[in-house]
């Protein structure tokens, strides 16, 4: 049966602005919310939108991401009529296959897309936190008889110069695209989510590369080309929660928002679940001396200290006398006795030794993956 829409998730980003947190893993594999990784939101959106065939394009430090996704079983993408495929760069007779941009990554995977033979290709980023029904976007795409539809979200006009900005007419047809304009004409920012008619995009990419006029990036090259050539290009307005967690500050802020049970992501909504591959851990244990207030504590945690407005991922240990405030402690981390941590992100399997102090009051503090600070006197 012909696939109507194939999802292609671009998950090869290095995420250099996340510093220590992406030294050994790709940005989409960074943990979020205690029991998820960032890419879980995009994968779950696909499944909840009825998209059963997904290609995940990886490049930078893909091992953790590949292991996390596996055969897609955690998202129900391992059935007879469903599947997830990891697409990595490879060498061929034509030479290097390293992806040089978003559009180039799609071009290099034309053979895979042709095997699926979709009518539409949904291009997604794997590093945003949000819930979106892509089927509704497809309905709008069809209704507009569009060749390309770009998801957009309104941002404060003072921040618009940080984004690709879409200028539209009264019918939301995109008439102009400005990449990070100094003086933006609107506040409609591209979310990096596109629906293309595959036959047309395929033709555009092949023609471009055959002429050596390489279209490397959707924002810089493909979208302006579509607009200039008179293609039907429309904006799809998104009005719900969406967060680009590409910086330490934005990741910390999104995590603090996530702690609130009334957060705009509506994580308790059983009709739109966010799925993930989770380890099997015992129930968490909180000692009589411990104090936990306004925090999320995941399976396997041992808490003997004071935790306030913080997020503890699975298998975290907080020892006696430790005080954790407004912080994110990722899986497997150990916090020693009498430690004080304020406004920080502590990476997976990190160790913070007894009596240490980590203060992110002025700037969010970060402890890297498996980083060791100080010494644990008693590792029991």
TrEMBL record:
<feature type="binding site">
    <location>
        <begin position="179"/>
        <end position="180"/>
    </location>
    <ligand>
        <name>alpha-D-glucose 1-phosphate</name>
    </ligand>
</feature>
<keyword id="KW-0547">Nucleotide-binding</keyword>
<feature type="binding site">
    <location>
        <position position="164"/>
    </location>
    <ligand>
        <name>alpha-D-glucose 1-phosphate</name>
    </ligand>
</feature>
<comment type="pathway">
    <text>Glycan biosynthesis; glycogen biosynthesis.</text>
</comment>
<dbReference type="InterPro" id="IPR005835">
    <property type="entry name" value="NTP_transferase_dom"/>
</dbReference>
<dbReference type="InterPro" id="IPR023049">
    <property type="entry name" value="GlgC_bac"/>
</dbReference>
<dbReference type="GO" id="GO:0005524">
    <property type="term" value="F:ATP binding"/>
</dbReference>
<feature type="domain" description="Glucose-1-phosphate adenylyltransferase/Bifunctional protein GlmU-like C-terminal hexapeptide">
    <location>
        <begin position="288"/>
        <end position="360"/>
    </location>
</feature>
<dbReference type="Pfam" id="PF00483">
    <property type="entry name" value="NTP_transferase"/>
</dbReference>
<dbReference type="InterPro" id="IPR056818">
    <property type="entry name" value="GlmU/GlgC-like_hexapep"/>
</dbReference>
<feature type="site" description="Could play a key role in the communication between the regulatory and the substrate sites">
    <location>
        <position position="98"/>
    </location>
</feature>
<keyword id="KW-0321">Glycogen metabolism</keyword>
<dbReference type="InterPro" id="IPR005836">
    <property type="entry name" value="ADP_Glu_pyroP_CS"/>
</dbReference>
<dbReference type="InterPro" id="IPR011831">
    <property type="entry name" value="ADP-Glc_PPase"/>
</dbReference>
<comment type="similarity">
    <text>Belongs to the bacterial/plant glucose-1-phosphate adenylyltransferase family.</text>
</comment>
<keyword id="KW-0808">Transferase</keyword>
<keyword id="KW-0067">ATP-binding</keyword>
<keyword id="KW-0320">Glycogen biosynthesis</keyword>
<dbReference type="InterPro" id="IPR029044">
    <property type="entry name" value="Nucleotide-diphossugar_trans"/>
</dbReference>
<feature type="binding site">
    <location>
        <position position="190"/>
    </location>
    <ligand>
        <name>alpha-D-glucose 1-phosphate</name>
    </ligand>
</feature>
<keyword id="KW-0548">Nucleotidyltransferase</keyword>
<comment type="subunit">
    <text>Homotetramer.</text>
</comment>
<dbReference type="GO" id="GO:0008878">
    <property type="term" value="F:glucose-1-phosphate adenylyltransferase activity"/>
</dbReference>
<comment type="function">
    <text>Involved in the biosynthesis of ADP-glucose, a building block required for the elongation reactions to produce glycogen. Catalyzes the reaction between ATP and alpha-D-glucose 1-phosphate (G1P) to produce pyrophosphate and ADP-Glc.</text>
</comment>
<dbReference type="GO" id="GO:0005978">
    <property type="term" value="P:glycogen biosynthetic process"/>
</dbReference>
<protein>
    <recommendedName>
        <fullName>Glucose-1-phosphate adenylyltransferase</fullName>
        <ecNumber>2.7.7.27</ecNumber>
    </recommendedName>
</protein>
<keyword id="KW-0119">Carbohydrate metabolism</keyword>
<dbReference type="Pfam" id="PF24894">
    <property type="entry name" value="Hexapep_GlmU"/>
</dbReference>
<feature type="domain" description="Nucleotidyl transferase">
    <location>
        <begin position="7"/>
        <end position="257"/>
    </location>
</feature>
<feature type="site" description="Could play a key role in the communication between the regulatory and the substrate sites">
    <location>
        <position position="59"/>
    </location>
</feature>
<dbReference type="InterPro" id="IPR011004">
    <property type="entry name" value="Trimer_LpxA-like_sf"/>
</dbReference>
